[in-house]
Amino acid sequence: MSATGRGASARSATADREIVITHVIDARPELVFEAFTEVRHLSQWWGPEGFTTTTRAFEFRVGGEWEFVMHGPDGTDYQEWISWTEIAPPERIALLHGESRNDPNAFESVLTFEPDGPATRIEMRTVFPTKELRDEAAEKYHAVEGGQQTLSNLAGYVTEILRKGTEG
To answer: Coiled coil located at which positions (predicted)?
Structure first.
């Protein structure tokens, strides 16, 4: 399942278990990568529209963890956990994402940050343990729309950083 962009036409061995979302952000990869990896930025944009994020622990290094709560617009809290499995600034991040460290349904995501002229093409490729879990994420939790909204929030946040930077 692919929402947008390149990579959608190339069928991989995990195609029936994955969701791929891309977005172009009008900023250099270094800035987009920074906004994605520094905790002071993450709470400003992380999550779908209407959600807010509270970080409980954050250590950005391979093997480090980010424990956080996403607060839904209806008041529901979602416990989240991420462990970084690969970090290659400013091109690539790989991570494991679930509700907790021992979540058997945790999924893997690889994010790439490619220069696209003066902009950055970010691709978020998520592979679920099973097709059923991928389908549930897409249908019950609207993972494609949520991912698109999250990357759109990132784009808006980075644009605001640039605007404030040019204003002095």
So the answer is: none
